Every structure is written in structure tokens, then in C-alpha cells.
């Protein structure tokens, strides 16, 4: 009897073991077969997302000159932002020389940058090397010109901007001088295509809005040193110049210094320009000759932040709706200068 009970008990154990063994061998592989591919896909997706998010960008920037506050502050801002995110950003001045700019772009290609930004001395001269960059898989952004071999162009309607400068100057002229008669000087920079467009806008507005004003002198000036020299030369030949229209803030700052040195600062003397640099705004607030400057996008720091964001978007594969991205322009006067002045 005991043997029979023991035999039955042992048989039950064997059966239980067999059932358990069957569950393990049949159920587990089925679960693995169903879940393993899903787990692998999720892991791959996670790895891919991590790789994209953690990608470190290498950015190369070449601008016309760093003597202009807008470009210098924007570039230092971009570099600081890049380093804060673990990216690398190198910027250089081509000193307004196309051959040097081409060499800089070639070096950025050789060093395998992810993104290159160009502020062209001559856009036509660098079209081919920018094509080489894009052929190498590098994204290219142009700051200022409507170029062909780029992913995006960050541009200004320069005729419109120049017209705004001339229009503001005309309002001043008509309010300060009988019949709008006065002598005007223009600090231009015709060797750069977009700045020639700006100059043409200034002259068109003056002709239309202040027809009795006379442009007696035009001198090139893109930075403060050139502005001082140009304005001193103009004042020697035309001491009665009362209004100065400048294509950029660098020349405007120099013109103001020359007028101060010549003791020409007066209620009926005004400088009208673009860029709204900190120096221009300080002069406005202090009641000096700077009366108005067209701000483009924002302060140089805001410009740097805006440019860096676009460069990051390009480097991370984001698409833009249009190749040409137009910038906002608006006048800054003594009435709103403090809003944009950075102490």
C-alpha cells in the first residue's frame, strides 16, 4: 500500500515537473519572439535620438570685418552660445577681401565643419567655393546677400532700409531749414553691392522727400576710423554740411566724433544711419549729432543669438520654408533709444 502511494506521489511530481518544463520551454521563447524585436527597435530609436541630441556641431564663420560693432558683438555672442552647448564656433574677418574669404571657406571645408556662415565681401566671388562646401555635405548660410549656393540667406531689403534713412533725414531737414534747403553729406560704401543698394535708397528718399536739400559730398566709410577721416575731409571742403546720411553705424559713430571735434554739434545738425549700435544710441541719449539709426533685427547681441539659432537649426537638419529669410527693420530715435541701449 505504501509503495502504491509513494509511486503515485512520485508520478505526480514527474508530471508537475513536465508541465513546468513545458511552460518554460514553450511560453518564454514565444514571449522573446514577440518582444525582442520591439525592444531592439525602441533601443535603436533611443540611441538614434540620443545621438542627434548629443551631436556636437562644428561651425565656421567668415565676415567682412570685425571693426564693425554689429559683426564683432554678434560673433562673440555666437561663440559664447556655441561653447555653452558644447559646440565649436570659429569666426574670422576676411578684411573685405574675397581671396582671403575664399581661403577661409576652403579651410572650413577641410576641417569638416557642419555649418559655414558667410558675410560676403563679394557674393559672386564665393559662389563656387560655397557650392564645394554644400557638395561636401556642409550646410551654408549667407548673412546679407541673396546667394544661389546656400541653404538659407538672411537678408535685408537694402533699398527699403536706405530709403528709411533718407526719409528720416528728410523729415529732419524739412523741420529745421526754411524751404528744406541745406547741405547734405553721404557716407557710403559702393564697393559692396548691398551697401550700394542702401546708398541708392538714401538718395532716392532725399530726392523725393527733401528735393531742395543738396548732396554736396559722398565718401566711403564702413567703420568709425573711416567715418572720422571722411567727415573731416568733407568739413574742410563743405563746412556748412548740416545733415549726414550713413549706410552703417560705424561711419555714423566716426562722423559724430568729427563733428564734436569741429564743435559742429547743434540743434540743426543730424546724423542718420543704420545698425543702431551702442555708440550711436549713447550719442542720441547724450544729445549729440546722431538723431536716428535703423535697427535691423535687434541689438548686436540679439542678432548674434538669432544667427546662432539658425546655424544650430541647419546643423541639426532642420528645414526652412524659404531660402531667403528677411529681417525686420525699424527706426530708433532718442524717444526709444534707451530701450535698446546696453549700459
Automatic annotation (TrEMBL):
Keywords assigned: Signal
Main location: other
Signal peptide: 1-21
InterPro entries noted in UniProt: Peripla_BP_I, SBP_2_dom
Domain Periplasmic binding protein: 59-319
Coiled coil: none
PROSITE patterns named in the record: PROKAR_LIPOPROTEIN
Region: Disordered, residue numbers: 28-49
Superkingdom in the source lineage: Bacteria
CDD domains: PBP1_ABC_sugar_binding-like
Compartments, as annotated in UniProt: Cell envelope
Entry similarity comment: Belongs to the bacterial solute-binding protein 2 family.
Protein name as it appears in the record: Sugar ABC transporter substrate-binding protein
Amino acid at each position: 500500500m505504501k509503495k502504491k502511494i509513494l509511486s503515485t506521489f512520485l508520478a505526480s511530481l514527474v508530471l508537475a515537473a513536465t508541465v513546468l518544463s513545458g511552460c518554460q520551454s514553450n511560453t518564454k521563447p514565444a514571449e522573446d519572439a514577440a518582444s525582442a524585436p520591439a525592444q531592439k527597435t525602441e533601443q535603436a530609436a533611443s540611441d538614434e535620438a540620443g545621438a542627434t541630441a548629443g551631436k556636437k556641431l562644428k561651425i565656421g564663420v567668415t565676415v567682412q570685418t570685425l571693426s564693425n560693432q554689429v559683426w564683432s558683438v554678434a560673433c562673440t555672442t555666437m561663440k559664447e552660445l556655441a561653447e555653452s552647448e558644447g559646440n565649436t564656433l570659429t569666426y574670422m574677418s576676411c578684411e573685405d577681401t574675397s581671396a582671403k574669404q575664399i581661403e577661409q571657406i576652403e579651410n572650413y571645408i577641410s576641417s569638416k565643419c557642419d555649418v559655414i556662415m558667410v558675410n560676403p565681401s563679394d557674393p559672386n566671388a564665393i559662389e563656387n567655393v560655397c557650392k564645394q562646401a554644400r557638395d561636401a555635405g556642409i550646410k551654408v548660410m549667407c548673412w546679407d546677400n541673396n546667394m544661389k549656393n546656400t541653404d538659407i540667406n538672411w537678408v535685408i531689403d537694402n533699398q527699403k532700409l536706405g530709403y528709411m534713412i533718407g526719409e528720416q533725414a528728410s523729415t529732419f531737414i524739412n523741420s529745421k531749414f526754411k524751404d528744406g534747403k541745406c547741405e547734405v553729406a553721404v557716407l557710403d560704401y559702393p564697393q559692396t553691392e548691398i551697401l550700394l543698394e542702401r546708398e541708392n535708397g538714401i538718395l532716392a528718399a532725399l530726392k523725393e522727400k527733401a528735393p531742395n536739400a543738396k548732396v554736396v559730398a559722398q565718401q566711403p566709410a564702413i567703420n568709425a576710423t573711416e567715418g572720422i577721416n571722411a567727415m573731416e575731409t568733407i568739413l574742410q571742403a563743405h563746412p556748412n554740411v548740416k545733415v549726414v546720411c550713413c549706410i552703417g553705424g560705424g561711419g555714423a559713430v566716426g562722423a559724430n566724433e568729427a563733428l564734436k571735434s569741429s564743435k559742429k554739434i547743434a540743434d540743426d545738425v543730424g546724423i542718420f544711419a543704420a545698425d543702431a549700435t551702442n555708440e550711436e544710441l549713447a550719442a542720441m541719449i547724450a544729445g549729440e549729432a546722431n538723431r536716428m539709426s535703423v535697427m535691423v533685427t535687434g541689438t548686436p547681441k540679439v542678432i548674434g543669438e538669432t544667427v546662432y539659432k539658425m546655424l544650430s537649426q541647419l546643423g541639426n537638419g532642420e528645414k526652412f520654408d524659404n531660402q531667403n529669410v528677411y529681417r525686420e527693420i525699424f527706426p530708433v530715435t532718442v524717444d526709444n533709444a534707451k530701450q535698446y541701449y546696453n549700459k
